[in-house]
Each structure stands twice: as C-alpha cells, then as structure tokens.
Amino acid sequence: MSVLDDVLRDSLPCRTVREDKLRGRLNHSYLVLTEDDAVRAKLCKMIAKAALCPQGGCGKCGVCEKIDDGAYVALTVEEGEKLTVEDVERLVGDTFFTGFDGDVKAYVVTNMQGMNERAQNKFLKTLEEPVSDIVFVLGAPSPQAVLGTIASRCKKLAFEGFSREQLSDILQEETPWGAARDGLDRDEVIDRAAACAFGSYSRAKMLVSDGDFARLFALVADILLKLTDSKKLDEQLARLSPYKNDVSAVLDMTETVLELLLDGGEAFGAIKQLRSTFDTASVVNSLGLVAAAKRKIERNCNAQSALDSLFLGILEVKYLCRR
Ligand SMILES: [Zn+2]
User: Fold this and answer.
1) How far is the CA of 48 from the centre of ligand 1 (A)?
2) CATH number of the domain at 210-322, out of 2.60.40, 1.20.58, 1.20.272, 3.30.70?
3) Where do the domains of the chain lie?
4) CA neighbor of 38 nearest in space, from 133, 139, 131
5) pLDDT digits (tens, 9 = 90+) for 75-88
6) In angstroms, what is the span from residue 84 Cα to ligand 1's centroid?
7) Centre of ligand 1 from the C-alpha of residue 67, in Å
8) pTM, whole model, 2 decimals?
9) Taking 80 as the threshold, does the pLDDT of residue 93 lie above it?
C-alpha cells in the first residue's frame, strides 16, 4: 500500500467504520465528507474495504482486491460528470442483484454533488428501504451538496485533512523527480508544499509541481528577511516589479509566509532564517497589515502604493519589536 493509502486507512472515518463492524453495528449508509476530490474517491473505497474486508481493510485479501478492481462498486462519477435518474435506476435495479459471494456488498458513489435533485430523490427511495446486506458509501464535498433527507439517513464521516508531516511523507513517495529542479532543493520544495497546503492533498500536489509558486515563495521570504533598513526598501520592492499586475498573488504569498512563522511545526530553509528576525508580535502585526492591504485592493486603491505601504509597515513593525 502507498503512504497515502496507509494514512487514509488509519484516518478517523476508516477507524469509525472498522469499529462499527467489530460491534456488529455497521450502518446502512455512510456519508464521507471532504472537499478534496482525489482524497474523497480513495477514502470512499477505503471505507468500503473497512466495512467488507474481514480484517477491516487489509488491502491484500480477495475482498480488498475486488474492491480495488471496482467490483461491489456500482457508480463512480468523475469530476464534472452528472448522475442522471437513469443512472440511479440502474443502481437501484442492481441493488437486488444477488450473484455475489460475500456476506455484504457495498455501493460507492463518490460524487453525490454530481447527482441532480430528481436523481437524488429517486436514490432516496433505495436508502429508505434498507436491504440488510448492502452498505452505501456516499461521498460529497459538504453536507449541503446532498439532500437533507439523504444526509439525515447517513452516518457522517468528516475527513479533517492531513497533518503537515503526513503530507510530507506522501509527497516524498509521490514526487518522482531527482534531487533538484530549477536549482531548487527537492526536500525543501516538498516541505514548503506540505506546509502551505494547510491539510489539503490536492493543494500539496499542485504546489509541489508549481515552479511559479516556488519562485514567488522564495522571493517574498527573501524580501521579508532583507527588510532591515528603510534606505534599502526601494531596492527590495523593485524585486517585486514582475508581479506588478498580480499584487494579490504577492499579498497571498506574504500572508502564507507569515502564517508559517506562527506555525509551531519544524521550520525549513527560508522559514528557519526568518523566524530569527520576526518575533510573534511582529508576525501578528504584519498579518494585520497584509489584511489592511487586501482591503485597499478590494476598494480599488492603487495596488503599487498598497504594496509599498505594506512593506514599509512591516519594516517598522520589525524595527519596533526589536527594541
Ligand atoms: Zn482485506
């Protein structure tokens, strides 16, 4: 099993279903909630294994293999696809199919949000008439994506996201390229992506392969580090000129870098250096200045002057906190 599979297998939703099974109290239907599409599909499958596999989802037995091959799984929708009433009718018809060698079968629908209201109402009828040997595993980004009448019949399993360490481990396994790319250190790229993803696997995957993100991150961190003298302020601000039409990206990145300084996790490269020049009070005050600059941009104030006064403000905050 991959690191991602391992982490999902130990996640609270999977543990909950394994416990339900051990107690002989498997629910008729589960609603798996996470906004991360890639994670939701994998987690739904893992939960089907937790419910059906005699070892609670070993990943090796015949039952687990069948689930991996798509057996027991009636409907899956790829992102953007729609589930129609006809699809649901096919599923419902199949529910009563008995040519099946296990004691329980699972139906997995990973993207309930792709099912329109009419189709969901059709589907509800099946949920209302529980068949004893069937477990429904439904996935959605939020409870609001599902009719209230469906959500209320399901045991809800919210996936709260990954820890930074878990994302680092997953990326270490899944990031194929060698030690360096564009002169960037692989471990640092991974640590930074894991730290800036705030628990989301999809975001971490996107960040690890995004060279623009890596460059802007390194630039903003370096400017914050070198912001020590008002005489050198213009020189530092000039380095941001390639982003003059995308000041929002600079503000978002400044916020991300500052938030990492508050994060208690282990620091990497640039963040480690920055932590020695910012204390907690100056980070908090600087974050306030970023928020103020964002409000100015929203009110259509001049973007360049908002950026200039932000970095002047951060320089002052750093200076004041040092005394
Ligand atoms: Zn198994």
Assistant:
1) 10
2) 1.20.272
3) 3-158, 210-322
4) 139
5) 555 555 677 778 77
6) 32
7) 9
8) 0.76
9) no
